[in-house]
Structure formats: structure tokens, C-alpha cells
Specification:
Elements lengths: L6 E2 L5 H11 L8 E3 L7 H17 L3 H4 L3 E9 L6 H14 L1 H4 L4 E9 L13 H6 L3 H4 L12 H14 L5 E7 L3 H10 L6 E5 L7 H9 L3 E5 L2
Parallel strand pairs: 1-2, 2-3, 3-4, 4-5, 5-6, 6-7
């Protein structure tokens, strides 16, 4: 189960993220789904906002209600610079570290959903700069695995294998794994080798990008379609 409506903070100014999240989960709004990404560098702020928001909720509740755990879902995503098995492992472990205080908090029933943000970097998308972003990565990321742009058709497949391994392991508390901004052809390729179907596909549903065949495929294969820019 995942909440139907959430709030996205991936592009919000970092200084506002904690307060946005804390306010969103109050009982007058009752948002229980927060969307962000590893590349947004604000996961710790999301965690801080959840903790502050839970504390504010407790202050407004009766003694009996204060003891109830609040279920919070967070969707985060692995950027295309971190595609490949070892690079994706770094990204997910850094995300888990950012949320560790929530994972350990007895008042929060925390559900973390991890998606591959993009299947590859696209040179024809103006705001993507594949070479520049690769050069700007920390050395520990670059040395962990090859530049995914050199093998754009396979790097994301290794990332998916890593997400499957983490999801199937008791070591990593992942509620679900999925993909974002994948076209139907990529989803169909994934179906050929995956041990686990994506639980979630996050996709832009803006009218000019709407792909009815993709949505129908997801419904047929029980992939939850989560839309943004709606």
C-alpha cells in the first residue's frame, strides 16, 4: 500500500525542505508521502522535517494517540550519474544513511521506496550535460564503476540488479523498488531479465508525454503508476 497523493520537494530550495515536510504531515493536511531524490541533496532535510512534524503531531494528540506510530512513505531516486551496480549501491547507501534517524525512530513506521531516476543520460535533453556531470562527481563515485554514459543500454540493468539484491536482502529496509522516466521499450527489456518487476513507475503525465501503451502495460503487469507534473 502507498498513499495516493504526496508532496514533492526534489526541486525545492534546501532551506525550505524541512519546514515544507513538517507542515505537510500535520493532521490538517495529512500528507504521508514525500518525494525527493539522491541528486537533490536534501534527503537529510526531509528526514529532519519528518522528525519535527511527528513531534508536532504528538503535541496535539492525547496520551493514547501519542504512542501510535505514524506511517510515512518516502520516494527517493538514483541519478543517472550513479548507474551501474557499485555506483548505485553508493547512492542507495547514502540515502539510507540520510534517513537513518527515521529508520531507528520508534514513532515512525518508515517506508522507503527507491527508484532509478532515469535509464540513462540523454545528450539531446538541453539541461542534461553527461560529460560535465561525470567530471564533477566525487572521486570515490567515479572510481567505484565505469562512466554509465559509455554503456547507456546496460548500465541501468546493473543498477536494477543491485536494487533487486538490496530488496531481497534483510540488511536493507526497502519497501519497494522501481523506475522513473523509463519508456515502454526499457520496461519491456527489463521484463526479459528481471527477477522482480518494478513495483513503481514514476512518470510525467503531461499531455504531450502521455503514453497510453506504457500505462496499459503497467496495469497489466501490476506496476503502480505514480505521476508527477499532473
Amino acid at each position: 500500500m502507498i498513499p495516493l497523493v504526496g508532496v514533492g520537494v526534489g526541486n525545492s530550495p534546501i532551506s525550505f525542505v524541512a519546514s515544507i515536510v513538517a507542515e505537510a504531515i500535520q493532521d490538517d493536511k495529512k500528507i504521508r508521502l514525500i518525494d525527493t531524490s539522491h541528486a537533490s541533496h536534501n534527503e537529510e532535510m526531509v528526514a529532519e522535517g519528518i522528525l519535527h512534524g511527528i513531534e508536532a503531531l504528538r503535541e496535539q494528540r492525547t496520551d493514547k494517540e501519542k504512542k501510535k506510530r505514524v506511517q510515512i512513505h518516502v520516494v527517493t531516486k538514483v541519478w543517472y550519474t550513479h548507474l551501474g551496480y557499485e555506483r548505485t549501491k553508493i547512492a542507495v547507501e547514502e540515502s539510507l544513511q540520510a534517513f537513518q534517524k527515521i529508520i531507528d525512530n520508534s514513532l515512525v513506521d518508515f517506508k522507503l521506496h527507491v527508484l532509478l531516476h532515469w535509464p540513462r543520460c540523454y545528450d539531446n535533453i538541453p539541461w542534461m550535460n553527461c560529460d560535465k556531470e561525470e567530471l564533477e562527481l566525487p572521486e570515490y563515485v567515479r572510481s567505484a564503476g565505469p562512466d554509465p554514459s559509455n554503456d547507456p543500454d546496460n548500465a541501468w540493468k546493473e543498477s536494477w540488479r543491485l536494487l533487486e539484491d538490496m530488496y531481497l536482502s534483510d540488511k536493507y529496509p526497502l519497501a519497494s523498488i522501481g523506475v522513473s522516466n523509463f519508456h515502454l521499450t526499457d520496461i519491456e527489456h527489463l521484463d526479459n531479465f528481471a527477477r522482480i518487476h518494478p513495483h513503481v513507475l514514476q512518470v510525467n503525465i503531461w499531455s504531450l508525454l502521455f503514453d497510453v501503451n506504457l500505462v496499459e502495460y503497467c496495469h497489466k503487469h501490476r506496476i503502480h503508476v505514480q505521476v508527477y507534473n499532473a
